[in-house]
């Protein structure tokens, strides 16, 4: 599957990255090679190969889930630079489904 510079620009915009023309060409080439390698993995015959989720024998140590008293909202909000209606106000990072420029 070939990837073009427009697709790389789109992904870069979503990640809030900017590239020079030379970098864009280089990343397009590199991402194309990565996609080719991943597609090549799909051609590997894995018939009869057991699924491996973890190569180590690990055991989860579980503890009882016990509710405890949390922090006071007023105490927590003392450290917040800006709030609105009792919530922490943060700058918008997504506008109309796209990442901001």
TrEMBL record:
Family the UniProt entry places it in: Belongs to the GatC family.
Key words of the record: ATP-binding, Ligase, Nucleotide-binding, Protein biosynthesis
Assembly behavior: Heterotrimer of A, B and C subunits.
Reactions listed under catalytic activity: L-glutamyl-tRNA(Gln) + L-glutamine + ATP + H2O = L-glutaminyl-tRNA(Gln) + L-glutamate + ADP + phosphate + H(+); L-aspartyl-tRNA(Asn) + L-glutamine + ATP + H2O = L-asparaginyl-tRNA(Asn) + L-glutamate + ADP + phosphate + 2 H(+)
Gene this chain is encoded by: gatC
Family matches, as Pfam families: GatC
Top enzyme category: ligase
Function: Allows the formation of correctly charged Asn-tRNA(Asn) or Gln-tRNA(Gln) through the transamidation of misacylated Asp-tRNA(Asn) or Glu-tRNA(Gln) in organisms which lack either or both of asparaginyl-tRNA or glutaminyl-tRNA synthetases. The reaction takes place in the presence of glutamine and ATP through an activated phospho-Asp-tRNA(Asn) or phospho-Glu-tRNA(Gln).
Its EC number(s): 6.3.5.-
Residue ranges the record marks as coiled coil: none
Name by which UniProt lists this protein: Aspartyl/glutamyl-tRNA(Asn/Gln) amidotransferase subunit C
InterPro entries the UniProt entry points to: Asp/Glu-ADT_sf_sub_c (IPR036113), GatC (IPR003837)
Taxonomy, superkingdom: Bacteria
Classification lineage: Bacteria, Bacillati, Bacillota, Bacilli, Lactobacillales
